[in-house]
Design goal:
Helices cover about 35% and strands about 20% of the residues. By secondary structure, the chain is of the alpha/beta class. Strands 3-2-1-4-5-6-11 form a seven-stranded parallel β-sheet, with helices on both faces. Helix 1 packs across helix 6, helix 5 runs parallel beside helix 7 and helix 7 crosses helix 9. It is globular.
Amino acid sequence: MSETASSKYLVTGGAGYVGGVVAAHLLEAGHEVTVLDDLSTGFREGVPAGATFVEGRIQDAAEHLDPSYDAVLHFAASSQVGESVANPGKYWANNVGGTIALLAAMREAGVAKLVFSSTAATYGEPRGDGPLSESSVTAPTNPYGASKLAVDHMIAGECAAHGLAAVSLRYFNVAGAYGRFGERHDPESHLIPLVLQVALGERESISVFGEDYPTPDGTCVRDYIHVADLAEAHLAALRVAAAGEHLVCNLGNGSGFSVREVIEAVRKVTGKEIPEVLAPRRAGDPAVLVASARTAHERLGWTPSRSDLTGIVTDAWDFLRAHRARTS
């Protein structure tokens, strides 16, 4: 299938934040898209116009896949770290069991290309302060990261045994918004939307967990990637996926922003005061967590173009205010 030809894709979890933005990009590129989502964490209105929506579980993917599909983009997963620690069985059942069923359905239907939404949580706590590469040690510290790593191993075996063409994209901190598609998790655990909730008056303050880390301002540094840059990487992955190969690529900017830099950016963008509350360090929080995206640059031809923190925060702020206005 050529880069410019129209293709047909199944997007599992396409009613969620990242899946919805990727589905929108696929449609804008002229492709046919079916979204499969059980709406357990996604939203019906998060499915872009023009996509066919099927409400269902990935465990039942065999009911919806057929040889007319060119590839699957797989975003359907449970993804809360804290919940995975409290309820690990849910994560093995949904993330691993669901993907086992999906891969079997793909084999049965003769769909031989997959792009998988993986995560930086597969690496666990970094060893050293340098950017993490795909060759870094994978030692997840929670069942969420472990379940995603298990799926990566599963996909590698599928490529070797059955010739699947697959790319796993390991995200770092996804942020920003793309038009009407933005971040609205419940519960919310990500820093930028949490600080924006303070700006909206929905939260009294933002907690800063430790200010004595070996970083320029003493707070943790993380790598933030704009969700639209992330979506473009998925389309690039579809183009380069090769039969029998499991390609793993980190997606990030290669540099990071501290907790206090994020808070200052929100103050600048919103013009609001953001009260801070200093809290003790959280166990397992590394001082610096950033990605080396060299493999994505070399293999996918991908370089993020929306790396400015102010721009990322502005897009998230515009989305959040518009969403609140629509739903109030």
